[in-house]
Each structure stands twice: as C-alpha cells, then as structure tokens.
Specification:
- The complex is a heterodimer of chains A (about 110) and B (about 120).
- Chain A is an all-beta fold and about 110 residues long.
- In chain A, β7 and β8 form a beta hairpin.
- The model of chain A has no long low-confidence stretch (mean pLDDT about 95).
- In chain B, strands 2, 4, 5, 6, 9, 10 and 11 form a seven-stranded mixed sheet that branches. Chain B has a four-stranded antiparallel sheet with strand order 1-3-8-7, with no helix packed on it.
- The model of chain B has no long low-confidence stretch (mean pLDDT about 90).
- In chain B, β5 and β6 form a beta hairpin.
- With about 120 residues, chain B is an all-beta fold.
- The chains are: A mainly beta (about 110), B mainly beta (about 120).
C-alpha cells in the first residue's frame, strides 16, 4: 500500500536557525497537505499543494511539491519558539480517497 | 458550523474493560478517519470510513478493535478488553471530497489511559 515517509523524526534547533522537514511518497500523489500539531494539541491544517513543482509561502514557511509529485518539503526560516510542534505531511494517492499521513517531524526550538 | 467533536476528551479504563470513543464529523462531511498517536510519536492510520461503509481498515488490529460510521449519529471506535498498550491519544478527522481535494479537520482527540 501507499506509504508516506517523513524525515527527520526529531529536530532540535537554536532559535533563529532554519529548519526543514522532508516528505516522500512511494506513489504519485494528487496533492500534498501539511499540518502542525502543537504539544498537547491536535493537528491543524496549514496548506495544500496540488501542482507539480508548486511552491507556496506563508510568512517564514516555504512549502514545495516535487516535480514528480512524490515528495515535498517544508522549510522554516529563522525559527521561533512558537514554531515548536510536530509537522505532518499527508497526501491522497492519485487513484484513491484515503489521506495518508507521514509519521511527522518533531521540532524543538531552544531559546 | 461546529468543528469535529470527539468525546470523551479523557477516558480511563481498567484492563479488560471496553472503551468506546465517539466522533461527530463536521456538518456535511461524510469521510471519517481514525488515527492513534503515542506520546512523542506520529499519527498512525487505523481506519477510514464513509457513511455506513468501512473503506480501509488496514491499520486497525483485527482483534478487539472495531469501528463504525452509521447513517445517523457519530462514528464510534470501540476497543474491547483493553490492555495497557492501548493507552494513547486517538484522533478522528473528517473531510468532504467534493470539488477540490479538501483538507482534513481534526477533533481534539480522546486520551485513553488503561490502568
């Protein structure tokens, strides 16, 4: 079945450093979505990418969808303590309805 | 439009008891997902349901676990004869696949503790 892998599993950064998490699917995706879960909270939708090679920005966050629509990345510039949490990618297979999540990357920011 | 509602938020069960977790999707949503999360870990897919149908239960243990999403009422995740290893946060998400591919909206989760 479809698998979505995410790396790294954990990332500890100093406040002000950049952070990137990568997402790879075993199959072509119709879309890629990113979610953030604060400690003790529930996942909240951040953004969706649909087009091959698409890049979207939200303030210090940059999201990319690969040309082959099988990988994606989330990059945070100059991390802040408010960025702490777990970042998940998720995607729909091109031929299916099920939304498959990656295992997530836990981000910790030291001030 | 209320969000995804899960109850209870916290549930304590003794080993061998049954745990019943409820999820009311957002109004108009007919797709429900259940995920399990251990502390400091990611979301593990359990089951995907549409109204009255189980679409994919490949992530759900074949024994003791069951899920349903009836025509009327919330989706239910049932765990029979709970064991300590069932202690986790269980999240429900709902979506509606009409038009553009939509995002999933999560409930606050049910934290199950088995003592």
């Amino acid at each position: 079945g479809q698998q979505v892998m995410q790396i790294p599993q954990y990332q500890h950064v100093q406040e002000g450093e950049d952070f990137t998490t990568y997402c790879n699917s075993s199959t072509t995706l119709s879309n890629i979505q990113w979610y953030k879960q604060r400690p003790g909270g529930h996942p909240v939708f951040l953004i969706q990418l649909v087009k091959s090679g698409e890049v979207k920005k939200q303030k210090r966050l940059t999201f990319q969808f690969g040309e082959a629509k099988k990988n994606s990345s989330l990059h945070i510039t100059a991390t802040q303590t408010t960025d702490v949490g777990t970042y998940f990618c998720a995607g729909h297979q091109s031929s299916g309805n099920k939304l498959v999540f990656g295992a997530g990357t836990i981000l910790r920011v030291k001030s | 439009n209320a969000g995804v509602m899960q109850n209870p938020r916290h549930l304590v069960r003794r080993r061998g008891q049954e745990a019943r977790l409820r999820c009311s999707p957002m109004k108009g949503h007919s797709h429900v997902y259940w995920y399990r999360q251990l502390p400091e870990e990611g979301l593990k897919f359990m089951v995907y349901l549409q109204k009255e149908n189980i679409i994919d239960e490949s992530g759900m243990p074949k024994e003791r676990f069951s899920a349903e999403f009836p025509k009327e009422g919330p989706s239910i995740l049932r765990i029979q004869q709970v064991v300590r290893g069932d202690s986790a946060a269980y999240f429900c998400a709902s979506s509606e696949r009409q038009g553009a591919v939509p995002e999933a909206f999560f409930g606050q989760g049910t934290r199950l503790t088995v003592v």
